[in-house]
Design a protein that fits this description.
The chain is about 15% helix and about 20% strand. The protein contains 1 helix and 3 strands; from the N terminus they run βαββ. Helix 1 links the parallel strand 1 and strand 2. It is globular, with a radius of gyration of 16 Å. The chain starts with about 25 loop residues before the first strand and ends in a 6-residue tail after the last strand. The relative contact order is 0.19.
């Protein structure tokens, strides 16, 4: 009997990140602290990824240091 696993099998890739014509993958980040801001900066440096949103518990007008066109939200559904 195979052991139970709590992880789902990953879906096959439908996007070829090596294709220069491909649109960048959209990424949402949970958190707006030091690590999340650093992660967003690293993702901005990658041509095949783009950050579209960040989920935060902080008041939206108090979040600083998030560069680029990143939408801040309190809703996981909007992320």
């Amino acid at each position: 009997m195979a052991p139970a696993t709590r992880f789902r099998k990953a879906a096959p890739l439908t996007h070829d990140p090596l294709d220069p014509r491909a649109d960048p993958w959209r990424v949402g980040v949970v958190g707006t602290g030091f690590i999340a801001r650093s992660l967003i900066n690293v993702i901005h440096s990658m041509p095949d990824l783009t950050v579209t949103g960040a989920l935060t518990r902080r008041p939206l007008d108090s979040v600083e240091g998030i560069g680029g066109d990143v939408t801040l939200t309190h809703s996981a559904a909007e992320l």
